[in-house]
Structures are given as structure tokens and as C-alpha cells.
Prior knowledge:
With 509 residues, this protein is mostly helical. It has 18 helices and no strands. The protein has one domain.
Amino acid sequence: MNNRKAVTRNMICTLLLQFVTIISGLIVPRIILGYFGSEVNGLVSSITQFLNYIALFEGGISGVIMASLYKPLRENNEDKVSGIINATDHFFRQIGIFYIIYMLIVAFVYPLFVQVDFSRGYVFVLTCVLGMNLFVQYFFSLTYRLLINADRKVYYVSLTQIVFIVLNVIGVIISARLFKDIIAIKLISAIVFLVQPILYSAYVKKHYCINKKIPRDTEALSQRWAGFGQNLAYFIHANTDVVVLTIFTPLTTVSIYSVFYMVIKSLKSLAISVSAAILPSFGNVMAGGDENETNKVFDLYEFGMQFISVFLFTCCIVMLNSFVAVYTKGITDANYNQLAFCILMTVAELIFCFREPYVSATYAASHFKQTAKYGYIEAGINIIISVILVKQFGLIGVAIGTAIGMSYRMLALVIYLKKNILHRPIKIFIKKISVFGVITVISSLICFILFDLSCPSYIIWFVKAAAVALIVIVVETGICLIFYKNELAQIFRPLIRKIKQNKVSSKED
């Protein structure tokens, strides 16, 4: 499969996955809010975030393993691939054992330090149930999923996840009505996802010759501590806000954050799915050693990420607060009208997406050790500023900490790649971020001026959202035609060619 076909297939499937994930992410929390209220929703979100810190044990190994697999897969070196997979599988099974211990500690300690209206035994069981899915992921499925993704077959992983997300939503809807207990709902979700590793294993056995007798190749694993900084920064970014809010604010505030972040995270995942689809092909090009070709692919990669991210997050800046008002209609135990927080958090995640190509380039080049310090510094900035500001500013304080930490790392990586990997002039980045920044500001101001964004129903919200999306895409495309005409042409040329071919075929028929 050539790179263009791989990217196209992967992108279609990952975008479909993100669409299904977004729908699921809207349905499941709303069911929890409707049946159990903001405190339970905040409790589930808080425990889940604490459990996610198990990924720190992983030490960033996923990115390291992906990078180590690109070359042997390109060269069809089955022994090398087998050695890496055997070492990775052994490592993740060890992580699974550590995770069980960590999960039990969280289950025991959490109710001692967080004020909740549930018995310690209830919180203990809920924590164990929430931890089951992550345990299965590390202990059984992650190794094969990394192999499939590294081989540019992201589409299979995406399609598999789509099936189980849909089954999970169905299970949640049914169990909420039958049992009306949050533990029962989450237990059914965990059982649904238990089947996923079986499908990954069957696919790998059919398409790859993994020799279990090949000695474990620990060369890639030796870089895991170098990847720890990258991993630490990401998980601080993903989890610090909820942890800080859990410690310093009521669980209702955690619920407010989780509802807003649910939508923002879905849009971020939609944008990052483009990166996930492109990254294996980009790594394949970089493994070829042609710096000029690598820079050409990276320029298009960067532009595509920024174009998609600005469209999604500008619409989010304008429409998210009104969506949450409709989404939480009838929920009166917390104030979900948080426009300032909405804008700040959206901008923070836009910065995250802007820097994604630079993070991916360091991964693909295996420069984990050289760039680890930027991850540590980002994590420190995020924690310190969030803790300082949360008492006075609450939700806004943690959003500011997140935005400043990510901005630092983005700028640090731009400079690093210029000096050590891509050797691109920094002015290329400055021009792009300036142009897309102007697009975001102009589009947002036009929409805020033109529309009354209060929406009494989903139908009215969707109508206004469609109008906002149209304005944003027109402004963005118009400005990009002035500054980035060639990049737009390269992105849309395959689509235009396909349309022309279909027209010719229709005429011939």
C-alpha cells in the first residue's frame, strides 16, 4: 500500500472513529448526569483521571516502540519485528501487574482524601470496575495495536474501536434503565471491551509472522526513560486539571470541567486523528533519509493540522457555551454557564493541536532523550501555575496553566526541530501561526457580532452552528488562498481529480 492510499484510508476511518466517539461522549455523560447528577459525574471523571496516571508507568514506551518499528516493517525484517514485539509484550504484561497494585491503592486511598456522599466500599468497587478496561488494554491488547498502527493499518484499529464504542453505548442505555446503578453501567462497559484484544490478536496472527522464540529485542525499550518526559507532559496535560480541581474545589466543579472538556477533547481527538493517520506514513518517509522529501511532507502535514484545528476550535469558541446550556438543561445543581473558561480552554487545546506535528516529528526521528527536558518543564509549568491560580480563579486558573505550559513546549520544539531534525527556518512557523491566529480572531468576532447565541433547543443550536461553520470555513479558505494557495491545492487536488474522473465515467456510461 503506498503512502497516499494508506493516509487516505486511515484518515477516513479515524475520522469516522472520532465522529462515533464524539456521539458516544455526548450520550454517556448525559445519561450519567440525568440519572445520577453532577456529583456522581464528577466522581466518575475524577477517579478515571487518577487511574489514568498508570500510563506514567508506561514511561512513553508507545511512541518509542512505534518509532522502532517503522524501519523493520519497511524492510520486511520479520526477525527484528518479532524481537521488538516480544520485548514489548513482556513489558506491558509487567505494567499490567503494577496497574493492579496501583488500582487497589487508588480504590483504598481515594475515599480517605476526597469528600463524597458514598460509602468507602462503594467507591472502592467503583474504582475497581473503572480500572478493568485500562487493565485489559495494557495486559492484552496494546502491543498488537501498536504493531498494526506502525504498519500504516490504522484503519483496522479504528473500525474495531467503532464497533465496540457502539456496543458500549447500547449497553449503557439499556443498563441505566434496568439497573439505575453507576457501578452496573461501568461494569457492562468493561465487559464489552474485553473482547477487543481477541480481534487484535487474530488479525496479527493472520497478517504477521511473529516468532515467539526470537529473543526479546530490548534496544527500543532502552529508550523508554528518554520517552518518559514526553509521556509525563502529555498525562500532566490530560489529567492535572481534574486532579487539581478535585483537591481544591467541590466535585460539582469537576463535573462542570468534565462536561466542557468532553466536547473540547472530542474535537481535539478529531484533529489528532488526522495526525494519527498521517504519522505512520510520515515516519516511513523519514526512515528513507531524504530530508527534502521529509520537509515537503511535513509542510503539508503541518498546514493540514492547522487548517482543520482552526476550523474546529473556532466553531467551538463560538458555540460550545451555548451547546452546554442546551446539554445540561434541567440540571440545576451546578452553574454550567462558563464562557470565559470555555474560550480559554478551547484556545489551550488549539495550541496542543498546533504543536502536534512537531511532537510527532521528534517521535518519528526517535529524538526522545534529546527533547525529554521540554516535557518535564511543560509539566512543571502546568502544575505550578494551575495550583497557584485555582484557588482564586477556579476553572479559569487551570485553563491558564494548561495554555502556558503547552505554549512553552510548542515553541521549544519549533526551535529544536529547526536546529536538529528538519532544519526549517522558524519564520515558516511564525507566518503560519500568525495567519491562523488572525483567522481565528476574525471568524470569532464576526460570529459573536452577527448571532444571538442563546439556543433553547438542539435544533436551533444546530442551525446556528451550521451558519457559524459556514462563516468560519469561508473566512479561513479565503485567507488561506491568499497566503497558502499551493498547500490548499495539494490537499484538495486528489479530491478534485476524483470528481473529474467520476464525471468522465458518467458521461461515458
